[in-house]
Amino acid sequence: MTYVCITFFVLLFLNFYTAGTSRQLFCKSKETAMIERCHLAAGELADLEVFSTSTVSNAFSRMGSQSLSRILVTNQSGQVIYDSQEENSAVGKNALFPVIVYALRGNDVFSWQFQNRAMYSQAATPIYAYGTLIGAVYMAEYNSQQGALMQSLQVNILSITLVLEAVVIVFSMIYAATFSRRLRKIMESIRIIREGDYSHQVAMGGNDELTVLGNEFNAMAQRLQTSEQKRQQFVSDASHELKTPLASIKLLSDSILQNDMDMETVREFVSDIGEEAERLNRMSQKLLSLSSIDSQVSADCEILNIAPTVIRVVKMLEGIAKAGDIAVTLDVQDVCPVLIVEDDLYQIAFNLIENGIKYNIPGGTLSVRVYRDGENAVLQVTDSGVGIPEEAMSHLFERFYRVDKARSRSSGGSGLGLAIVYNLVRRHQGEITVSSSLGHGSSFRVVFPIFDTEEAES
Ligand code: ADP
After folding, report:
1. Cα(398)–Cα(395) distance, rounded to whole angstroms?
2. Which residue among 233, 355, 405, 458 is least enclosed by CB atoms within 10 Å?
3. Residue 290 Cβ < 6 Å to ligand 1
4. For the segment 424-456, what is each residue's pLDDT rounded down to a tens digit?
5. Which residues is 239 bridged to in the sheet?
6. How many CB atoms lie within 10 A of CB 69?
7. How remote is the CA of residue 173 from the centroid of ligand 1, in Å?
């Protein structure tokens, strides 16, 4: 409707403008021609020795009728001395038409009007003889042909305007119908997605902004579907993982209740129940930690040299390493300030170093290095342990993924440690890479951008 209204007013304006301009041009040329004819006649009359009805009539007989509907000549007081119209002749009367009055004041005058579909134009000019005003010549033309031409021109312009407006209305309606049909399609798809069918895709067709909107919508729906699948997978994995220690606890407690056991065996069973409860506790803590990484938008970061925290973690895990006969070497080369939350850095270092001990072999080595590499701070944890098979590398950072389930579980693993590390590293604009050789060991490299206070201040 807006387009229709806009085009309607534009066309209406063009219609008036062209009609008015053509009429003006037409009248201008008419005015020039009529005034010229009056000047010619006035020139002829000025040369007359005697300015009277007979001499003026003779002069006009010489000039011819000039296809005019009426010619009047007056003396300087406005009295008609010549009238081309013989019936009801005005000779002798005072012709006080406004055009003649103006001409007698020394002006060239022209006026026109439409009368009964004909163009009625009048012109009058003064007659000067030797610089003295002696009268005025007046000419009138009643031209029905020119009137008809003028009218047909205006009718044609109006018809073109109406046809164009009709075309605009038809096209606007077709366009509006197609546009709203496609919009309804997108709205219908939004409703389907809102109701939970994330697999739905909208087929927009065409090649315009709505097609781009449709493609963006499909990408969003696909993203929603992926995260929904991940969520469902996570929930089912989490409940499965929690079920295992719970089942063990139930089995162990049932055995204690049903069997007549000696105190030693009961103690052993209760200690197993304690271990399983401890595993459950660790797992729920890790799950909580994962969900808080997901939901937390910003944390209280501080500029921190990473070395002291890493040293603290190594000290903490030294005992377990010694128990597993693993030699730990710590190599801190540079001061590496990064923008991070200390607890997060502790957790990253703890999980990586703990894994390096857990998945190592007796008599193996574990090297922990902190150094600067250009604009980056690097924490590298390299072990000489069991290594990771090639096919497992791409799944390593997935939640609940474990290469060797039996080994991981026996060492208290939940498959959540590396997922936590990955999320924390990403949260602090860092990157983690891993290289491994099966049977020879693995190396985890975490990189954070250096945050130099001097640079930041400058
Ligand atoms: P978990 O709690 O089972 O250790 P992680 O997420 O920390 O879970 O690790 C995922 C899996 O990756 C582990 O189960 C293990 O199979 C493998 N893995 C992690 N670190 C190492 C390592 N340093 N050497 C060999 N395998 C490792």
Report:
1. 5
2. 458
3. no
4. 999 899 999 999 999 999 999 999 999 876 654
5. none
6. 16
7. 64
For a pLDDT cut of 90, what percent of the chain falls above it? 51
Name which residue sits closest to atom 19 of ligand 1, judged by CA: 355
Give pLDDT, residue 457: 45
Q: Compute the half-sphere exposure of residue 41: CA atoms within 13 Å on the CB side of its CA.
A: 31
Is 0.70 topped by the overall pTM?
no
Ligand 1, closest atom to CA 412?
2
Q: Measured in angstroms, how far is the CA atom of residue 355 from the centroid of ligand 1?
A: 6
Helix (H) or strand (E) holding 340: strand 337-340
Instruction: Name the closest-CA residue to atom 7, ligand 1.
Output: 417
CA 441 – ligand 1 centroid, Å: 12
Per-residue burial over 374-400, b if 16 or more Cβ lie within 10 Å, else e, is eebbbbbbbbbbbbbeeeeeeebbbbb
Q: Kindly state if the Cβ of 354 falls inside 6 Å of ligand 1.
A: no
Residue 374 CB contacts under 8 Å (≥ 6 apart), including other chains: none
b/e per residue 294-313 (b: at least 16 CB within 10 A) = eeeeeeeeeebebbebbeeb
Of the listed ranges 50-64, 315-329, 366-380, the least confidently predicted one is 50-64
Six token digits for residue 74:
């007056």
Answer whether 418 contacts ligand 1 (Cβ < 6 A): yes
Q: Is residue 11 scored above 80 in pLDDT?
A: yes
| CA 283 to centroid of ligand 1, rounded, Å | 15
- Residue owning the nearest CA to atom 4 of ligand 1: 413
What is the distance in A from the centroid of ligand 1 to the CA of 359?
A: 7
pLDDT digits (tens, 9 = 90+) for 100-131: 999 999 999 999 887 777 888 999 999 999 88
Is residue 355 lining ligand 1, measured as CB closer than 6 Å?
Answer: yes
